[in-house]
């Protein structure tokens, strides 16, 4: 596990290696995180349920049902499908896109476009990459529309086309692609009222902890200042994790510290509580309490994202 070295002096925790995620505060994101929705697992081939859940949990805007509906449109779940445009595999990557976005999703050491575990994971990464590239275009007014639809359009027609036309391009294929997938999301959405894992209840932080723990265990996710997925800074990670349980947080540690209920001391903390370092004028770091004196934290560029022992004593604990 990667480690970040801290020292405690007079009750204060001081970073001595690497950067800190919120020493320089990030402006709040103008795009709220979308709450994840439950996947209708019965509509997905059983061997791909875990892959779809994972790919739909890499960033808040791209959900498991959207990933599933996109696969249905791309290949009809055919693992060796190939289009007339030479798009390959269950997620239909062309060679040039796979060269830059294709990743090893099952840990066998090979990124294979015809391996559905690799392809579905890479599909999620590519969709989140589209989201992150489109966000500043929306903020600048260069592009209009909702992020998931624009990300789908970019997957089909390319980001350049979305930027050129200021939204979903006026191509029949692309417009039908977006419309069809959006309509089919309902088919892949569970109707039992549960959240991302299908077992969550109101107030249950399990899905948020599981999401953060998965990110910490997968070194393809890196610490990136301002990152909201698939790479994260400290408040980006907590924002994305809490989106899994329908809680929208701002992307700034100090602002996250302003909400929720204050918990008096670590003895009363529960897994899923947010831990803060700083003071009332500037809470500059946040992590998720994982229980038993451990936390899940996006630390710094030097040490990455980790599940690890607490750093000293948090100065504030909040429960959402």
Nutshell version of this structure?
By secondary structure, the chain is α+β, with helices and mostly antiparallel strands. It is built from 10 helices and 8 strands.
- Per the CATH scheme, the topology name of the largest domain is Lysozyme
Determine and state the CATH class of the largest domain. Answer: Mainly Alpha
Portion in beta strands: 5-15%
Label the CATH architecture of the largest domain: Orthogonal Bundle
Based on DSSP secondary structure assignment, what is the total number of beta strands?
Answer: 8
Runs in which pLDDT lies below 50 for 5 or more consecutive residues are: 1-20, 22-36, 192-202
SSE ordering: EEHHHHHHHHHHEEEEEE
- The coarse silhouette is globular
Strand order of the largest sheet: 3-8-4-5-6-7
Structure write-up:
With 320 residues, this protein is α+β, with helices and mostly antiparallel strands. The protein folds into two domains: 6-31 and 199-319, endopeptidase fold (from Nostoc punctiforme); 41-188, Lysozyme, CATH 1.10.530. It has ten helices and eight strands. Helix 1 (49-55) packs parallel to helix 4. The longest helix has 25 residues, at 116-140. The two termini are 28 Å apart.
